[in-house]
Amino acid sequence: MKGPAIFLAQFIRNEPPFNSLQGLCAWASGHGYEGIQMPTLDTWLIDLKKAAESKTYCDDLRGTIDKYGLEITELSTHLQGQLVAVHPAYDVMFDSFAPVQVHGNSKARTEWAIDQLKLAAKASANLGLEAHVSFSGALAWPYVYPWPQRPAGLIDEAFEELARRWMPILNEFDKQGVDLCFEIHPGEDLHDGASFDRFLDLCQEHPRLCINYDPSHFVLQQMDYLQFIDLYEDRIKAFHVKDAEFNPDGTSGVYGGYQDWIDRPGRFRSPGDGEIDFGSIFSKLAQYEYEGWAVIEWECCIKDSEQGAAEGADFIRDYMIQETERSFDDFAGVKSDKKTNRKILGLE
User: Is cis: bond before 99, omega within 30 of 0?
Assistant: First the structure.
């Protein structure tokens, strides 16, 4: 495992040091991070089109970041990925993720989003990255609760369309040698293991269809986030270190009662302030020889972002495991060969 790293999306704002690449790099390096996960909508941070077309641009970008002792962990197209599939109920809200020229035109917005993902595949390859993180988008999400009764075939049709849109993108990532890692997240059609399995099957077990593992979303859904690793370890190629807590009471539970984050039973917390067992998570990922990055995605409804960022690098370092190269009981080992083994079994 590599780390610690930090996802920059939650920290970008129109004031120094958070409004320039150099400022963000100096800030992240100053907090002890070794990697940065980069969103791709702001061209002042990374020009996705240039990165897809020019290795020279990518070399210069990496050179700038390297001066601060940092690496790019992955590029992120969470917002563009969201727009690959949008139910009409969300058209107005999600238009803000796209350029003005495609607002109000869902077909053009989808085409723009798909092109963005394909550019991201090429840019990732030019930057020498092995994984990319994104959202799946959603056509079926408004029908997540089965009332009114869903018409037969509705969810099948939604997922078949989702697969149709993503297969050419997955093929482009395969062509570029990069894994496409979906963050399994409420609000996306890929929001749990069952929905991921449905999509994986329709995408013919595509080798580049992978997972950005974020346990916080599983706490809010009351899923077994540790068993999830056992079930999907071969597909987990990216990792968000994000904490959460779930405190249901007699007034609300998983659905949250339309309340703000501070009042919801399920809340994201700064790493270490929630209920997630990161010791077991890091142990399982080490057991399965996860070789990607551990990336802080800071979201908390209580703690200030700067404090969360300042604490995050040490938090990851404290949990990272250097995998052993020998067995703990080697000191008690005995001679091992076929003749000895047969003698021990009483066969000689």
Answer: no
Taking each helix axis as running N to C, give the angle between helix 154-176 and helix 106-126, from 0 to 180 degrees, rounded to the nearest 10: 30
Residue 331's domain spans which residues?
2-344
CA dihedral 45, 49, 51, 54 (to 10 degrees): -140
Q: Which residues neighbour 92 within 8 Å (Cβ) at sequence distance 6 or greater?
A: none
Q: What is the pLDDT of residues 268-325, one digit of tens each?
A: 999 999 999 999 999 999 999 999 999 999 999 999 999 999 999 999 999 999 876 7
As given in the structure block, the two tokens for residue 45 are 């941070």
CATH value at residue 312? 3.20.20.150
CA dihedral 134→51→83→220, nearest 10 degrees, is 20
Encode pLDDT of 87-125 as tens digits. 999 999 999 999 999 999 999 999 999 999 999 999 999
Please give the structure tokens belonging to residue 258: 């339309």
State the total domains in the chain: 1
Distance (Å) of CA 300 to CA 78, 107, 156, 216, 248: 19, 35, 35, 11, 18
Q: Cα 137 from chain centroid? A: 14
C-alpha to C-alpha distance for 66 and 300, rounded to whole angstroms? 29
What would the DSSP string read from start to end of 142-154?
Answer: GGSS--SPPPTTH
